[in-house]
Amino acid sequence: MANTASADDAPTVTAGDIPQREFGQTGEMLSVIGPGGARFRMTTWEQATAIVQRCYDLGINYYDCSHNYWKGRSEEVYGAVLPPHRKEVFITTKCDERTREGAEAELEAGLRSMKTDYVDLWQLHKVGNTDDDLDTIFAPGGAMEALVAAKKAGKCRFIGFTVHGDPNTVVELLRITDEWDATLIPLNPADPSYLSFEKIALPAVVEHGLGVQVMKSLGNGGLLSTMTARECIDYALTLPTHCIALGFTSIEQVEDDVRSAQRHTPLTPGEMEILRDRAAAVAGPDMEKWKKPMEALARPRHDDV
């Protein structure tokens, strides 16, 4: 079983050695890890920009964000660092608005903040977090119209969705339309014990050929009492996934997780089961607070979750 090296015996991180995977059917090759912009709010501006610069210097080309992260400042962090390297990096952002007009306004604001005229992947954020979400998104004048139009206009190259609450929402989104290129879903060793995205959503998105991004790989830190970050990363990368969005808040975390990605070898079925068993001690709704069955989701969305 993988173990994270201590600071004293950790080797120097070598730039450019991060494994890449082909991202679904997009033809893009992405680094298996990248920064998730939500955690930048836990840093200073100077720290956040230094983190992104270090990610780029080490060969990371996958950069996750959302317009609502840090009240828009996370997109500005990318805009401060990535423009000179725009053709070398794959930038994602997300929209929380559910009307076409609102979503298009979010995208335009994000493009200005990131100082680019397009994003590589634009995603509907936290789909299913209210009981009427799908009806609103796919209604005339809904946000789906904005995604399709933006892709046609070249303001985004690919479109996708993220789901936090119920894996059955993923299945429903795939049933409604085949326009999707990618998804971002929570996957970790605790997930199979409760409302499992690994069991319900992952097989469906793999069957449809979507690019699979992973969030909550460490259970928002809740799994670190039972296993190492490297074990969580190994678990997520052993599944049929392509990249993990990680909540870096320091350069040390970036370098540690780059080492984990560089050292990754797929876990055996037995090793995967051992991690699931260890995670079972903390698994469930108390740790995985982002999960809710569809019938319980009649509630407002929350920022930066």
Q: What is the fold named in CATH at topology level?
A: TIM Barrel
Distance between the termini: 31 Å
Strand content: 5-15%
Low-confidence stretches: 2-8, 298-305
Care to count the β-strands? 10
What CATH architecture would you give?
Answer: Alpha-Beta Barrel
Main beta-sheet strand count, sense and barrel state: 8 strands, parallel
**Number of discrete helical segments:** 10
Report Rg: 18 Å
CATH domain class: Alpha Beta
Q: Provide the number of structural domains.
A: 1
Q: Give average pLDDT, whole number.
A: 93
Structural shape: globular
Write up what this structure looks like.
The protein is of the alpha/beta class and 305 residues long. The chain has one domain (31-296): NADP-dependent oxidoreductase domain (TIM Barrel). The chain has helices spanning 45-57, 73-81, 100-114, 133-138, 143-153, 167-176, 197-207, 229-238, 251-263, 269-279, and strands at residues 20-22, 29-31, 33-35, 62-63, 90-95, 119-124, 156-162, 182-186, 211-215, 243-246. Strands 3-10-9-8-7-6-5-4 form an eight-stranded parallel β-sheet, with helices on one face. The longest helix is centred in the middle third of the chain and has 15 residues, at 100-114. The protein is globular and about 50 Å long.
